[in-house]
TrEMBL record, chains A, B:
Annotated source species: Tamaricihabitans halophyticus
Protein name in the entry: Redox-sensing transcriptional repressor Rex
Taxonomic superkingdom: Bacteria
Underlying gene: rex
Domain CoA-binding: 120-221
SUPFAM superfamilies xrefs: NAD(P)-binding Rossmann-fold domains (SSF51735), Winged helix' DNA-binding domain (SSF46785)
Entries under NCBIfam families matching the protein: PRK05472.1-3 (NF003989), PRK05472.2-1 (NF003992), PRK05472.2-2 (NF003993), PRK05472.2-3 (NF003994), PRK05472.2-4 (NF003995), PRK05472.2-5 (NF003996)
Swiss-Prot/TrEMBL GO biological process terms: negative regulation of DNA-templated transcription; response to redox state
DNA sequence: ACGATTTTGTGCATGTGTTCACAAGTGGAT
DNA sequence: ATCCACTTGTGAACACATGCACAAAATCGT
């Protein structure tokens, strides 16, 4: 698990489709990989992928609590604020160590510190945004990133009219400069907000510039070398998943309630919560 | 409801913190699908959540292939284009039926049609965007949604200066009108792009307007009634997950390679403190 | 000092998702 | 007609994730 090396012996590229960074990695028990079946040593290194995502959420909730002046928090409180059940929360926290006090709870500061350490947030990660269109502008101007340790340190586009123009206080560079500028400024995360057709080429340049983490907004599956991590944000897919659930609900209703369904604006049970 | 005891929390509300990430998992799914005990009478109605997300990706790839003139495709081709392994692809497709021909592959049109049917894309889903700021503008102007069956049919904001202003060809309404307008226009999906502090209130109004599917961009955990489906897109979380992997890589390198590390253009190991 | 009370941390059972591997079809060649 | 190369569809094994339930540790009240 920890040492997930070789994927298919094929080319030096793996394809990355979002949600499952580790998912597509076929174990392919051929390579050297871990000789030992049971990884006895250094096991603390593997935190379930799903748990990592939730840790980020806990961190946000904890930060908010800290701002409110809270000093300690129980797993029950924290979990309900984070929208998970308390057993899951405790298990997630147990992956990063034992920082709670039985009978009392967790100290907010300590937890914040430990989660930050685990997520590698103890230092900044320079971010580059490529494709300064509608979405790119929004991202470049968004204040939430720098505040959380992700300063936007480079902007790129092909559009000559945009080159040199400051967006969010930073001048746009030409995409040909991606490798150079990324290396110079120590960019560690590249964000792709170009049209789909340009995304792969842009990604290749980012990789050439030493970027090993990519967040992709373009609706395409990027091919990247082994060591590069890609996550995608695909709004069309999100909407389609919601659509699926709408359809499922409709089917279920139809089944359990074959008659009487005047397509009415079922707005009657308005249950605006307190 | 399957008498889920212990499910603490409010009365008719569940909190929603789902995402694209691997495990994701809308907890609601299990409750809705098979309320009754393990009776083998169970219909094959339930498609794994993760598979649904991938079906959307396959659909996009297939559509592109169809445009290129392809008429048939094998699981091997399609899976490599979609960035998954072929067994997974075939299993995913098997959830929606048997539409392939052994020894040949799948007919592209048929597959497109079946996936669309499964995802409920045979008719349009009206979308409302709330919070017409940086992100809201980008969403309202984005051409990719209407083209895929998700016409943006309503826009809302609190800002008086925005009310009535056309954005992407549609006038902005005041948020007080959310329940009314959503019901009138048959909105089925609400997109929240407001500041975090406003998100819950906005969500409540969407629900009051009959919206049962919400896509949330605000970094907060929304509380919604049972029957409402929420998906979130949290960019800060995405970046933090990438950060985690950067950190893990750094740790691993350090471990397996204690000394000597000067080949790269010093792109890794950004040590700016914070 | 000690039991009542609270809350963590985790072993275990359960559930979900992924991968393997191969029998069963299909079309084309001989 | 028979064989062969190819590809699907799926049972079964495995891997990962979740939730339960309770022992262990801490605090508080008496
Ligand atoms: N806008 C949205 O709400 C939205 C929603 C979902 C997905 N997306 C996706 O995000 C991406 C960007 O969307 P957008 O609405 O900002 O598009 P946009 O057309 O507004 O902006 C695209 C930008 O990319 C630049 N560009 C074009 N080719 C380039 C290249 N080769 N290298 C670098 N830059 C290049 C263009 O000059 C432009 O500035 C698209 O892939 C789109 O599908 C956008
Ligand atoms: N811009 C980004 O790139 C980005 C990235 C990640 C997350 N987000 C999140 O998306 C959301 C929107 O971001 P943004 O950059 O567009 O913010 P923004 O400030 O540009 O826009 C927010 C809009 O919401 C409106 N608004 C405020 N209160 C409202 C209310 N009660 N009801 C309805 N509308 C209200 C404001 O008038 C404004 O038009 C935020 O929650 C932000 O955290 C944005």
């Amino acid at each position: 698990m920890a040492a997930q090396r070789g994927q298919r012996g094929g080319p030096g590229r793996k394809s990355a489709e979002s949600a499952a960074p580790v998912g597509s990695g076929a174990p392919a028990a051929s390579e050297v990989t871990t000789p030992m079946p049971a990884v006895d040593e250094q096991r603390a290194r593997s935190i379930p992928e799903a748990a990592v995502a939730r840790l980020a959420v806990y961190l946000r909730v904890l930060s908010a609590m800290a701002e409110q002046g809270a000093t300690t928090v129980s797993s029950e409180e924290l979990s309900s604020s984070a929208g998970v059940n308390s057993a899951k929360l405790r298990k997630d926290l147990s992956y990063i160590g034992s920082y709670g006090t039985r009978g009392v709870g967790y100290e907010v500061d300590v937890l914040v510190g430990q989660i930050e350490r685990t997520l590698g947030l103890t230092h900044n990660h320079q971010v580059a945004v490529v494709g300064i269109g509608n979405l790119g502008h929004a991202l470049a101007n968004y204040g939430g990133f720098p505040g959380r340790g992700f300063p936007v340190a480079a902007l790129f586009d092909v559009d000559e009219d945009l080159i040199g123009v400051p967006v969010g206080g930073l001048a746009v560079n030409h995409i040909d400069e991606i490798p150079l500028v990324c290396a110079q400024r120590g960019i560690s995360i590249g964000v792709i907000a170009t049209p789909p057709a340009a995304a792969q080429a842009v990604c290749d340049r980012l990789v050439a510039g030493g970027v090993e983490s990519v967040l992709n907004f373009a609706p395409v599956v990027l091919q990247v070398p082994e060591h590069v991590e890609v996550r995608k944000v695909d709004l069309a897919v999100e909407l389609q998943i919601l659509s699926f659930h709408v359809a499922r609900r409709a089917d279920d209703d139809e089944e359990t309630e074959p008659a009487a369904n005047g397509q009415a604006k079922g707005v009657d049970r308005v249950v605006i919560g307190r």
